[in-house]
Amino acid sequence: MEPTFEIPAADAAIFASLPISEQTRLRLILAALKEIHGSESKQSAAWIIAVKMSRQGVHGRGYSGARLMDYYRRYTATRSWGTLVRRTLAIARTPIQALPAEFLSMWREMVARHHGNVAAAHVALRCCYAAGSAVPGYTDLPVKRGALPRGWSLANLRRYQPTKAERQLRVVRQSLN
Predict the structure, then answer these.
(1) Which of 2, 54, 168, 171 has minimal CB crowding within 10 Å?
(2) How far is Cα 162 from Cα 168, in angstroms, rounded to an integer?
């Protein structure tokens, strides 16, 4: 089966989610790879295309003859345009599900119990999860050894820690009791 050097219709939504500059870059590369594929001497064609691209004002990393040959080998081996996407942009663009409000309330309580120490609260959360304890907001959480549910990373949960105003209000309430 011959490679098509096009973005399949099934991948149109994923392709559209990439920045415009990356879409343009991928289209340029795929057009160059199609031209390389149609020539007898792939190596020579890659260098000729690289020179043509530089004369047309397409400069930057990723357009040398050697790089185009690398792209060509990767694309023909996998037949996937995804292998040509820059690694920094290859992160899955599916949105993380919003964390349940009940869970966030429990999380803030855990942070408060650990005197604002988010890392210690995260360790306690991981222990609860590993022990199979019920977690508010979730009906059934399969316990996977060494893995946490999506959105439970320390970096993500730091975004949901109580604000300074909430912490101060809690201190005032505790001092009144």
Answers:
(1) 2
(2) 10
For residue 28, give the nearest of 5, 11, 55, 4 by alpha carbon.
5
Task: Please tell me the distance from the alpha carbon of residue 151 to that of residue 33, in angstroms, as a whole number.
Answer: 39
> What b/e string do you get for 25-64 counting C-beta neighbours within 10 Å, with b at 16 or more?
bbeebbebbebbeeeeebeebbbbbbeebeeeeeeeeebb
SS3 for 156?
helix
Phi–psi pair at 124, nearest 5 degrees: -65, -40
pLDDT digits 0-9 by tens, 90-145: 554 444 567 888 999 999 889 988 988 999 999 999 988 888 888 888 887 777 76
Q: Is 155 exposed, middle or buried (0-12, 13-18, 19+ CB in 10 A)?
A: exposed
* Residue tagged 């899955």 (tokens): 92
d(CA 10, CA 93): 16
CA distances from 111 to 52, 105, 116, 122 (A): 59, 10, 5, 8
Query: pLDDT tens digit string along 72-87?
Result: 998 888 888 888 888 7
Reported pTM: 0.50
